[in-house]
Design a protein that fits this description.
Blueprint (H helix, E strand, L loop, with lengths): L7 E11 L2 E8 L11 E4 L2 E8 L3 E6 L1 H6 L10 E6 L18 E11 L2 E7 L2 H4 L7 E4 L2 E8 L3 E6 L1 H6 L10 E6 L1 H13 L13 H6 L4
Antiparallel strand pairs: 1-2, 1-6, 2-5, 3-4, 3-6, 4-5, 7-8, 7-12, 8-11, 9-10, 9-12, 10-11
């Protein structure tokens, strides 16, 4: 489990093909002395298992499913990545609960400067957009962010200078692809409500509303 608060920028040093999978060798600024082989590390939001460790470098195995669902299809040496180790339940939990299981990818369609913030618009498939709400949480390349606005095809986020400086989001340009993980609690609520209304005739189906949430015990 992760928080979406990035600990370090890393750089892919080497990509080793393994059939449809890959092994990534990554260097970063973190002191990994207390990290063990088998520990989970989120790389651009994808939960991966450390299989080799050095003080400031690690290697991870990437299964074909992970490659297919993420931007790592085009991973190459020199690519910058966001790195976060699994959270500890001994300190404050900033950000939001992030599983590291990528739901899909999006593409940046617009970048706009507004005062001290950078506004990004990201286009996504409708099934991902359907799991988002305004002011809800989303992880973009593993970064915990708040959704400003969302439609059936895209959403917008606001990036403060601190986030732009410490993560890969500050390097992004229009046309770049990013990994997306929608809010896990929202997904469970949506699935539950979809199942409970599955037997309702199509003509009686309604969108999720405050009254529907209350009827099902969420309020």
């Amino acid at each position: 489990m992760f928080t979406g608060i990035i600990e370090s920028l890393g750089t892919i040093h080497r990509v080793i093909p393994q059939g449809e999978g890959k092994v990534l060798q990554i260097r970063c600024g973190l002191d990994l002395s207390d990290t063990r082989i088998g520990d989970s590390i989120a790389v651009n939001g994808a939960c991966l298992t450390a299989v080799h460790l050095e003080k400031h470098a690690f290697s991870v195995d990437m299964a074909p499913e992970t490659v297919a669902r993420t931007t790592f299809k085009t991973a190459a040496p020199g690519m910058r990545v966001n790195v976060e180790r699994a959270m500890q339940l001994l300190s404050r939990v900033d950000g939001h609960l992030v599983s590291g299981h990528i739901d899909g990818t999006g593409v940046i369609t617009r970048i706009e400067n507004k005062s001290n913030a950078i506004l990004l618009t990201i286009a996504v498939d409708t099934h991902l957009a359907g799991q988002m709400i305004e002011k809800g949480s989303v992880a973009v390349d593993g970064i915990s962010l708040t959704i400003n606005q969302c439609t059936d095809t895209d959403f917008s986020i606001s990036i403060i200078p601190h986030t732009a400086k410490l993560t890969t989001i500050g390097f992004k340009q229009t046309g770049d692809f990013v990994n997306i993980e929608t809010d896990m609690i929202g997904k469970y609520v949506r699935k539950f409500l979809t199942r409970t209304t599955a037997s309702v005739p199509e003509t009686e189906h309604t969108d999720i509303s405050m009254s529907l949430l209350a009827q099902n015990g969420f309020l």
